Amino acid sequence: MKLTIWQSEMFPWYVLLAYWAVSALRLKQIKVNEDIPGRSLHVALMVLAAALMFSPGLAIGPLGHQFVSQTAWLQEIGVVFTWLGVALAVRARYCIGQYWSGRVTLKVDHQLIQSGPYARIRHPIYTGLLLGLAGLALVVGEWRCVIGLVLASIELSRKAAKEEQLLLSEFGISYQAYRQRTGFLVPRF
Description:
Elements: H1 5-23, E1 30-32, H2 36-54, H3 72-96, E2 106-107, H4 124-140, H5 143-171, H6 173-181
Antiparallel strand pairs: 1-2
Helix pairs in contact: 1-3, 2-5, 3-4, 4-5, 5-6
């Protein structure tokens, strides 16, 4: 049985959601938590970005126009980007383990993870998600996906900056040194 492009595109997203659900069962207790308005803004913007990216029903007017031609090779490249991005996000989620949170938080006895993808990128989960969404945008090829990707990029960058401030307050000089060795969303070699 041969998978369609859309099935090949969606499968890694299902894997990501399943892994997130299972791995969320074993997290450390929260010491410092994000404020409710900040969390609400993040959720609202990411839901909007996801709706634009994953909902064909939002292909209304110019949102449904193609920004790239729908060629098989371009869609296949998009699927590869999605698989690579989701693989990076899952690997990073595995490496951060019990210190992960969907919110901007510090955990009890929080440790600064610097292994795996965190050795080169400070926010590899976000990098992976954005690469995966860029792949989805290539597969779908509609402007709604470009807008969703831009919105997700802005929001994940904003959230990452908030996380950096919290980690800087917790780890001080060691976090400053880590920032100098690593890239924000793009690897530093």
